[in-house]
Design brief:
Structural class: alpha+beta
Strand order of the largest sheet: 2-3-1-4-5
Distance between the termini: 61 Å
Radius of gyration: 36 Å
Helix content: 55-70%
Strand content: 5-15%
Order of helices and strands: HHHHHHHHHEHHEEHEHE
């Protein structure tokens, strides 16, 4: 059975396992209460029907809760752990015990504190107030209808005033207990909210640390991490990928004639055009002062080259002031991009494939044909 149960439990998600553990703690509490009741029945202090009734009620209720949580059916509710329902079910069982054994009402009143302690996980102030009023009214009704004041004689004199005194003390005790739980519950909610805010802030800071402040693209460190992840995926799936290093050819000229701000805007506009033209799976990053880099998963060298040629043609039309597509900068200088593209080869180090792409970019400029240059295979460089 253990061999069957362990894999089934491991197949559940972490939140469901936590909810089941809490429910199993409630089952353990039921078990302890039932054992106490059977011991009292064995001692002749109550009828055997009382522990049997509580046992049957507890088994049915807990079986329903466990089935609902384990099957995922509870997820349709606002409280997937069914905390409120479990608390009210436990209270109902103890109130039933008071009705069946009114002379032991003090025992069931004490037992109520255990399920109510679980309410800290879910209840708000309004729920605590409603719970307090309902339980107080239920205990009072049971005492009046069953003559439960006889059971109070364990601690005080057997009179109507002593029963009223017992009820008042019980109500005040429950009120203080639930008020404390309400405060704890509010602190838990506030702590959860603060933790969510902290997680969001950490995520934003992490994103900012991975971004280039000028272009908003990935920075070089994050780009290399993405390339590393893609190389592992390529090895696992037996696929490939391409990387390209892209230079903005008119950058230096714009910077010299119009200043750094115009050059920065030029780089931003080119980055935006590349971002628009890339595939959803591609990753674009800032590579240097006037260079960008792009990772193209599952792309062949020919496909990557054609895609960059298409982007270069678009930038050329924009630089000439194409009225249909608009102009990416405020400079009248003609500019474009040149790029070196390399296809990763199995067993190749990341520094090597990036080096081949940079060498291809340098060759494009050295040959005087600023354009898209495919890198030579790694084997030909050895």
């Amino acid at each position: 059975m253990r061999r069957t149960f362990a894999p089934w439990l491991a197949s559940l998600d972490s939140k469901t396992r936590i909810r089941l553990r809490v429910t199993l703690l409630a089952v353990l509490d039921y078990g302890i209460n039932v054992l106490v009741l059977f011991a009292l029945a064995y001692a002749g202090m109550l009828a055997w029907t009382v522990p049997l009734t509580v046992l049957i009620f507890g088994v049915i209720v807990n079986a329903l809760f466990i089935a609902a949580i384990a099957s995922g059916a509870s997820r349709r509710f606002r409280d997937p752990a069914l905390t409120g329902a479990q608390v009210f079910a436990a209270c109902a069982i103890n109130l039933t015990g008071m009705t069946l054994a009114p002379h032991l009402i003090f025992l069931f009143v004490l037992n109520l504190f255990v399920p109510l302690s679980y309410s800290t996980l879910h209840f708000g102030r309004r729920a605590f107030l409603v719970t307090w009023l309902l339980i107080s009214a239920a205990i009072g009704a049971i005492m009046l209808s069953t003559g439960a004041h006889q059971g109070v004689a364990v601690a005080v004199a057997n009179t109507t005033s002593s029963s009223a005194f017992f009820w008042i003390v019980a109500v005040l005790t429950f009120g203080r207990f639930l008020a404390i739980n309400a405060g704890v519950s509010e602190l838990r909610v506030r702590l959860k909210s603060r933790n969510e805010e902290l997680a969001e802030t950490s995520a934003r800071l992490g994103d900012l640390a991975s971004r280039d402040p000028l272009t908003g693209l990935w920075n070089q460190r994050e780009f290399m991490r993405l390339v590393q992840d893609e190389s592992r995926r390529a090895v696992r799936n037996k696929t490939g990928f391409c990387v390209a290093v892209i230079a903005v050819d008119g950058y230096d000229e714009v910077k010299h004639q119009s200043g750094p701000e115009s050059a920065a805007r030029l780089l931003q506009d080119v980055a935006q055009e590349l971002e628009i033209g890339r595939r959803a799976t591609d990753s674009l990053a800032r590579h240097g002062e006037r260079e960008l880099s792009i990772l193209m998963p599952s792309a062949r060298l020919s496909t990557a080259t054609v895609a960059l040629e298409r982007t270069r043609a678009r930038l050329l039309s924009l630089a000439k002031g194409d009225t249909h597509t608009g102009s990416p900068g405020d400079s009248n200088l003609h500019y474009s991009i040149s790029a070196g593209v390399a296809a990763w080869e199995p067993g190749e180090l990341l520094a090597q494939v990036m080096g081949r792409a940079e060498a291809a970019l340098a060759r494009a400029g050295r040959d005087g044909e600023l354009g898209i240059c495919a890198a030579r295979p790694a084997a030909s460089l050895e």
